[in-house]
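Milestone 3.1: sequence recovery, worked example.
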């Protein structure tokens, strides 16, 4: 409870750090925040062309399947990467100001959550263009998103703390995320996973 009160006390700092991170990310690009919309669309187009045309993966509405899986994965991987570097990257600030170290991973996850919210617009566009039918289960998306954020934040705390003492963590994390991406049903469905392995996804 004390930790939550502490986080609430520094909520303005967390918000400022999150916005600062977003500004730095798009500072030198001509399109700025539009890349939050263009990146998922371009990735969807490239991967759809490769896996549905060249490799001919028989997944119905593959473009919708792909972007709806790619967006949360992109949020998770980027938020975790930024979180792992957050405390080390703000070392100079910590020397000058006494603040809880937890605010930095929280700010990293928050900035990527904002980015994720912006990237939902391309998903809505794809659904509208392809006339994908509405499902009543979509009302539970905020719950799924909240669980995903909490899980990402928990992982972020672990890797951010470990990276302070063992700087190779950030490099190891990139390898883990690359392997995790291909081992998870992001670009393929569970139907392609042999039954003896698919139990691990359930």
């Amino acid at each position: 409870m004390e930790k939550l009160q502490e986080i609430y006390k520094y909520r303005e700092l967390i918000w400022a750090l999150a916005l600062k991170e977003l500004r730095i990310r798009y500072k030198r690009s001509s399109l700025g925040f539009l890349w939050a919309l263009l990146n998922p669309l371009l990735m969807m187009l490239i991967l759809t062309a490769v896996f549905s045309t060249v490799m001919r993966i028989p997944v119905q509405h593959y473009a919708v399947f792909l972007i709806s899986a790619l967006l949360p994965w992109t949020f998770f991987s980027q938020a975790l990467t930024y979180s792992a570097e957050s405390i080390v990257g703000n070392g100079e600030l910590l020397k000058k100001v006494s603040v809880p170290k937890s605010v930095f991973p929280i700010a990293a996850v928050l900035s990527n959550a904002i980015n994720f919210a912006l990237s939902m617009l391309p998903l809505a566009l794809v659904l509208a263009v392809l006339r994908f039918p509405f499902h009543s289960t979509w009302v539970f998306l905020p719950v799924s998103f909240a669980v995903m954020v909490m899980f990402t934040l928990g992982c972020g705390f672990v890797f951010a703390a470990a990276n302070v003492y063992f700087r190779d963590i950030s490099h190891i994390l990139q390898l883990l995320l690359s392997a995790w991406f291909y081992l998870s049903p992001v670009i393929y469905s569970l139907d392609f996973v042999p039954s003896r392995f698919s139990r691990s996804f359930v």
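The mean pLDDT is 80. Residues 62-89 form the longest helix (28 residues).
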